[in-house]
Amino acid sequence: MTERSGQAGDATNGPVPTAPVCYRHPDRATYVRCTRCDRPICPECMREASVGHQCPECVSEGRRSVRPARTAFGGGAAGRQGYVTKTLIALNVLVMLLSIVLARSGTAVAGGGLGGLLGGSTPLTRWGGVLAYASYVPFGPLHGIAAGEWYRLITAMFLHYGLVHLLLNMWALWVLGRTLEAVLGPLRFLALYLIAGLGGNVAAYLFSPQNSSTVGASTAIFGLFAAIFVIMRRLGRDTSAILPILVINLVFTFTVPGISIAGHLGGLVTGALMALVLAYAPRMRRTLFQAAGGTIIALVLLGLVLVRTAMLAG
Q1: Pairing relationship of beta strands 47-48 and 53-54 according to DSSP bridges
Q2: Which CA distances in Å does 120 have to 68, 160, 161, 172, 215?
Q3: Is pLDDT above 80 for 89?
Q4: What's the CA gap between 149 and 153, in Å, rounded?
Q5: For residue 235, which phi and psi values (nearest 5 degrees)?
C-alpha cells in the first residue's frame, strides 16, 4: 500500500485561505475592518474614530446624524462670527460713498445739522429717504410713499446725512449687532434688524410732516437697544448697563433738533416686540412661532402704511 503526503491545494486539505480585500479597492489586501459596519478597509480608506477606524461611508452617516449647534433661541452658531453685522456695516458705508459721489458737493460730508457736523441732503437721500407725499420743487410731480414709492421704507435705513451721522450709527451697530447676532444667529438677527428698521420708518411715515424726509439706520439701532434688553433679561443676565445708554439716546432724540422722534420710538417699540417673539417662542415649535410672529408684525406695519396712504392720496 502506497502512502500520499498532503500538499497545499490538493483535495485532502482544501484551498489555501486568502487575505480579505478592501471593499473599495479590491486589489488591496487588508486585515483592518470598520468598527461600525465590519467591512475590510485599506489604509487609504481608514478614518480615525474614538475606537478603531471607520470607513468613509460610516463617517459620513455619523456626521449626518449629529445635530448642528444651535443658540438658546434656535439660531445657528455661525452668528458668533458676526457676518451679518459686518455685511450691514459694509453696505451702509458703500451707500454713503455712493451718496457723496452723486452729490458732487462737500455738503454731503458736512455742512448740515448739529452745527455743520451732519451732512446735507444728496440726490440719493432725496430718492430713498422716508418722504410721505410732496414734490421736490414747487409745482413739480409728487413723490413719496403715498405716491407709490414704497421702497423708501427699506432704503431709508441704509442712507445717512454725512459721515458723522454714519459713524455714530455704525459704532452702535458694531457694539450691539455682534452680541445679538451671536445670541440669536444670523437669520434671526437679520430679521430683527430689518423689522425694527421698517417699524421705525413706518412710524416716521405716519407721524412726520408729509413734506419732511428722514434717513438713517437709527430706526433699526433703537430696535437693537430694545432687543438686547429683552434678550439679556430672558437669559437672566445683568441689564443695568443697558438702561443708562438707552436713556441717554432717548434724551438726545427729544432734545437735538432734526432727529426723527417718531422714527426712533417706532424702531424701539418694533424691536422690542420682535425680540419678545424671538426670546419667548415655545421650544417645541420655536421656528414656526418666530416666523409667524415676525410675519404678523410686518403685516400690521403694512396695514398702517395702507391707512396712511389712503389718507394722503385717497
Answers
A1: antiparallel
A2: 48, 9, 6, 22, 11
A3: yes
A4: 9
A5: -85, 0
Alpha carbon separation from 78 to 107, 188, 221, 279, 311 (Å, rounded): 40, 12, 22, 18, 45
Question: What residues act catalytically?
Answer: 218, 264
The more confident residue out of 113 and 231 is 231
Residue 219, pLDDT above cutoff 80: yes
The pLDDT assigned to 1 comes to 43
Report whether 60 contacts 47 (CB < 8 A): no
Measured CA to CA, the distance from residue 206 to residue 305 in angstroms comes to: 7
Tally Cβ neighbours within 10 Å of residue 94.
11
| Amino acid, single-letter form, for residue 34 | C
Cell numbers found for residue 175: 457694539
The pLDDT of residue 65 is 57
CA 112 to chain centre: 32
Contact assessment for residue 213 and residue 130, using Cβ atoms and an 8 Å cutoff: yes
In this structure, are residues 43 and 36 in contact, taking their beta carbons and an 8 Å threshold? no
Which letter, b or e, does each residue of 217-249 get, where b requires 16 or more Cβ atoms within 10 Å of its Cβ? bbbbbbbbbbbbbbbbebeeeeeeebeeebeeb
| Structural domains of the chain ordered from first start | 12-59 (no CATH), 78-313 (1.20.1540.10)
pLDDT of residue 105: 61
Residue from 115, 94, 191, 150 nearest 304 by CA:
150
User: CA 74 to CA 237: how far, in whole Å?
Assistant: 18
Helix (H, G, I), strand (E, B) or coil at 266: helix
